[in-house]
């Protein structure tokens, strides 16, 4: 159901300059008939795709999306040489193959983090299109890195509603960008230095629709092992209703070294080389999806 195209292991992968350990999980939830989320968790690529479009089309879209990422040669070699430009090429391929396969009737969100190296230093290259989310817990500070491409995010940005109102807004599931459908298919990218002890959370909206950021933060900062944290988050989402498919990846970074072999203990300045803060245009969600959003099954 959920493609894991490359070999995956939740155990620590010890590589020069950085060891990653990670956990992952997905659950259909309590209301949906299908799980239309897909994910990939294989050093150096960690990403979640949330498919949309009825009758298994969403599953096809999200599956094609993660398979497109899995085709990157870096997955076979483990090289940390991916760039935003390279990622963009693979996303374009994913976008066209989804359109071909589904006639643009299905789409998918995509968010995640790719571990890359620049000048001998490790970075999280975070990408996002749609309203799945990537968060970072770093040096005790927990924050959402990705910015949702959604109608409610636009209303929040415009100061028309608060973030709290967005969580219960009737159109909170309407995304303004997606791969495979609509006119807006461009991803945003962020480049963040990997700090010692960083914990990255990548999740579909089946998690963030059920749990507040505070609740998520509490679990992430109290459950040590990444797989245990994933399991705790999914269980909490199910306890709170499990109204959507929920997919979670947690990645921990340890033994972060620079190219001189020096462990980095102090935060380095953020390098926002790839920041794109393009504001989404007016919503482009097609009519059938917009109508379907009247109930909560509008997006899967
Ligand atoms: Mg969803």
Brief summary:
This protein has 300 residues and is α+β, with helices and mostly antiparallel strands.
Please outline the helices and strands.
Elements: E1 13-15, E2 18-27, E3 37-42, E4 45-52, H1 57-70, H2 73-77, H3 84-102, E5 107-108, E6 110-118, E7 121-129, E8 133-138, E9 141-144, H4 151-157, H5 163-166, E10 188-193, E11 199-203, H6 205-208, H7 213-222, H8 226-239, E12 246-254, H9 287-292
Antiparallel strand pairs: 1-2, 2-12, 3-4, 4-5, 4-6, 6-7, 7-10, 8-9, 8-11, 11-12
Helix pairs in contact: 1-3, 7-8
This protein binds magnesium ion.
Magnesium ion binds at residues 50, 204-206, 244-245, 299-300.
Describe the structure.
With 300 residues, this protein is α+β, with helices and mostly antiparallel strands. It has a single domain (21-145, 173-297), classed as 4-Layer Sandwich (Phosphatase 2c, domain 1). It has 9 helices and 12 strands. The radius of gyration is 18 Å and the shape is globular. Bound molecules: magnesium ion.
| Largest sheet properties | 6 strands, antiparallel
Spatial order of strands in the largest sheet: 1-2-12-11-8-9
Attached small molecules = magnesium ion
CATH class: Alpha Beta
Shape: globular
Q: What is the CATH architecture term?
A: 4-Layer Sandwich
Structural class based on helices, strands and sheet pairing? alpha+beta
- Helix-residue proportion: 25-40%
Mean of all residue-level pLDDT scores: 84
Number of helices: 9
**Percent in strands:** 25-35%
Number-wise, the strands total: 12
CATH superfamily: PPM-type phosphatase domain
Gap from first CA to last CA: 14 Å
* Domain module tally: 1
The ordered H/E elements are: EEEEHHHEEEEEHHEEHHHEH
Q: Runs with pLDDT <50, length 5+?
A: 1-14, 265-300
Looking at CATH, which topology would you report? Phosphatase 2c, domain 1
Radius of gyration: 18 Å
């Amino acid at each position: 159901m959920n493609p894991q195209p490359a070999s995956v292991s939740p155990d620590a992968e010890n590589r020069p300059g950085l060891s990653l350990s990670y956990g992952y999980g997905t659950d259909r939830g309590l209301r949906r008939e299908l799980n239309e989320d897909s994910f990939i968790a294989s050093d150096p690529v960690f990403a979640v795709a949330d498919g949309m479009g009825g009758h298994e089309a969403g599953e096809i879209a999200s599956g094609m999306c993660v398979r497109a990422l899995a085709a990157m040669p870096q997955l076979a070699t483990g090289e940390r040489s991916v760039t935003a430009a390279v990622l963009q090429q693979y996303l374009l391929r994913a976008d066209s193959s989804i359109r071909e396969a589904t006639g643009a009737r299905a789409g998918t969100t995509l968010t995640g983090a790719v571990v890359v190296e620049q000048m001998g230093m490790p970075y999280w290259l975070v990408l996002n299109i749609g309203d799945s989310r990537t968060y970072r817990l770093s040096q005790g500070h927990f924050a959402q890195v990705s910015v949702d491409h959604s109608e409610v995010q636009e209303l929040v940005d415009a100061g028309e509603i608060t973030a709290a109102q967005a969580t219960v807004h009737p159109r909170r599931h309407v995304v303004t960008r997606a791969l495979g459908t609509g006119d807006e298919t461009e991803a945003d990218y962020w480049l963040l230095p990997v700090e010692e002890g960083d914990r990255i959370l990548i999740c579909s909206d089946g998690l963030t629709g059920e749990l507040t950021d505070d609740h998520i933060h509490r679990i992430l900062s109290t459950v040590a092992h990444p797989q245990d944290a994933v399991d705790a988050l999914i269980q909490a989402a199910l306890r709170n209703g499990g109204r959507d498919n929920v997919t979670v990846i947690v990645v921990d970074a340890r033994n972060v070294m620079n190219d001189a072999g020096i462990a980095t203990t102090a935060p380095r300045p953020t390098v926002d080389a790839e920041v794109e803060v393009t504001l989404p245009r007016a919503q482009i969600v097609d009519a059938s999806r917009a109508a379907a959003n009247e109930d909560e099954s509008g997006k899967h």
